[in-house]
Design brief:
This protein has about 375 residues and is an alpha/beta fold. The chain folds into two domains: about 230 residues, Aspartate Aminotransferase, domain 2 (3-Layer(aba) Sandwich), CATH 3.40.640.10; about 130 residues, Alpha-Beta Complex (Aspartate Aminotransferase, domain 1), CATH 3.90.1150. Helix content is about 35%, strand content about 15%. The strands form three sheets. Strands 1-9-8-5-4-2-3-13 form an eight-stranded mixed beta sheet, sandwiched between helices. Strands 10-11-14-12 form a four-stranded antiparallel beta sheet. Helix 1 runs antiparallel to helix 8, helix 3 crosses helix 7 and helix 9 packs parallel to helix 12. It binds pyridoxal-5'-phosphate. Pyridoxal-5'-phosphate binds next to helix 3.
């Protein structure tokens, strides 16, 4: 039975074998303390990969979002239009800065921010005389949002955007790496992401002056002086040189990891697509999805088993699966925030949460692991 079977995780770290070399160089040169050559090189390498000029390695993606919002000037009472279907880390920094999140629904084509819902939010905000200070567009489950129409709307109101590409490193939009079109963008190297530094993140922008400011805030906002002088409040947000070494080893295999994730998706897709009522997260025509997690929905009109029943069945066999993110407009902590749906009376993010499942998608999964998942789903439906 089940408890004997090896645990299959949703997504666990997958080392390339190159990491030790960089970690050892940090030890050999005693660059153990924060910063050092691995941090500098990791920033340069990510900058080269993305084609974005400025890269700032930080202790987490959350820290990167926080500094990004500060750069966009979000402060007390400011509204921020933010994707609802995402992990809470996307929106927490709005609250850190005393801002007010306004949540925007998804569209069905990519599961990301709906331009229609965004238009509605802007119309209402304009009528209320309270336009947002900034926007956060999320690239969900490794797929870019449809940035062009979204940015056109934000631009029309002169509102700058931060792209939360935490889950989408290696994905593209119109042939360009995710994060390239927004003023600021964010990556996460958390343990479950497509590549990891154990924990870490990055803020990216072509605005090098803004990046200098973020670098200053991230190192306790230390003014230029021999003694410790501070005229602003800062943070201890930099990535350590040891962890940046892991990142450099991981970056070497990012393209392989994207291929592996896409292969995992394809195996699930081929095995389950014939089941009436199962719909996989579509790959929108405007980009390459990194398929960070394979996600699908079960049509409750056709399939009488719920996502939670499938997740329970998988758990009985020691396999981890999860519901799709619970939209932020439904989180108790955000119960007083505004929310704009894709269509009147049709909330796409609610449907995706209520009917969606994320399947184990680690690039170090074996074929047998995947067969176990597929077999259980087939037997349960
Ligand atoms: C969409 C999204 N945004 C932000 C984050 C935060 O990144 P971190 O865990 O590195 O702080 C994550 C993941 O953890 C995420 O999935």
């Amino acid at each position: 039975m089940s408890s004997q079977s090896p645990r299959v995780y949703l997504a666990k770290p997958h080392m390339s074998g190159y990491e030790q070399e960089y970690i050892e160089s940090a030890f050999a040169t005693n660059w153990i303390a924060p910063l050092g050559p691995n941090v500098d090189e990791f920033e340069k390498e990510v900058s080269q990969y993305t084609g974005i000029q400025g890269a700032l390695a930080l202790s987490s993606g959350s820290a990167a979002i926080h500094l990004g919002l500060k750069l966009l000037g979000v402060g007390r009472g400011d509204r921020v239009f933010c994707s609802s279907l995402t992990f809470i880390a996307t929106a927490n920094p709005i609250i850190y800065e005393g801002g007010e999140p306004v949540f925007i629904d998804s569209e069905p084509e990519s599961w990301n921010m709906s331009p229609q819902a965004l238009e509605k939010a802007f119309h209402t905000a304009q009528k209320e005389g309270k336009l947002p200070k900034a926007g956060i567009i999320v690239d969900l489950y490794g797929q870019s949002a449809d940035m062009q129409p979204l940015l056109e709307i934000f631009d029309a109101y002169n509102v700058p955007v931060l792209e939360d590409a935490a889950e989408a490193f290696g994905a593209t939009y119109q042939g360009q790496p995710c994060g390239k079109l927004a003023k600021l963008s964010v990556l996460s190297f958390n343990g479950n992401k497509i590549i990891t530094t154990s924990g870490g993140g990055m803020l990216l922008s072509d605005d090098l002056q803004a990046m200098e400011k973020a670098r200053f805030w991230a190192t306790q906002a230390r003014d230029k002086a021999r003694h410790y002088e501070h005229s602003e409040i800062g943070y201890n947000y930099r990535l350590s040189n040891v962890l940046a070494g892991i990142g450099r080893g991981q970056l070497k295999v990012l393209e392989d990891r994207v291929k592996a994730k896409r292969r995992i998706f394809d195996t699930y897709y081929q095995a389950l697509k014939h089941i009436d009522g199962i719909t996989f997260m579509p790959e929108a025509p405007f980009g390459r999805c990194n398929r960070w997690l394979t996600t699908l929905t079960l049509d409750p009109q056709i399939i009488k088993v719920t996502p939670n029943q499938i997740i329970d069945k998988l758990e009985e066999d020691n396999i981890e699966a999860r519901p799709v993110w619970k939209p932020l407009h439904r989180q108790p902590v955000f119960k007083n925030c505004q929310y704009y749906t894709h269509e009147e009376g049709n909330s796409i993010s609610d449907y995706l949460f209520e009917n969606g499942i994320c399947l184990p998608s680690g690039t170090n999964m074996t074929q047998e692991d995947q067969d176990r998942v597929i077999q259980i789903i087939r037997n349960t439906i």
